[in-house]
Design brief:
- The protein is mainly β.
- The protein has one domain.
């Protein structure tokens, strides 16, 4: 999910979406998943990048120590967040 969109609601695109401020991203994404409005997808913090190759997640990177990323899914009505490994990039 990204807060870089300029709308006030979520726009489902493929398996992900874009969410604009001022809505809190995490609870909003959970609610949209629970209602079936969006598919499972990736949630990443500011300063984190997800690298995809041929439609598959290759790796997650950040220049910020402690940055987090998750794969968010739903199973029988329960939202699950699986933490992803984040590779710390070397300082420039």
């Amino acid at each position: 999910m990204s807060d870089s969109a300029r709308r006030r609601d979520i726009i489902a695109i493929g398996g992900g979406g874009f969410l604009a401020e001022p809505v809190e991203r995490r609870p909003a994404y959970h609610a949209y998943l629970e209602r079936g409005d969006v598919k499972p997808g990736y949630a990443i913090e500011d300063g984190v990048a997800a690298h995809f190759r041929h439609g598959r997640l290759e790796r997650v990177v950040s220049k910020r120590a402690g940055a987090k990323a998750y794969y968010v899914s739903i199973d029988q009505g329960t939202v699950n967040e699986r933490a992803l490994d984040v590779t710390l990039l070397p300082a420039a």
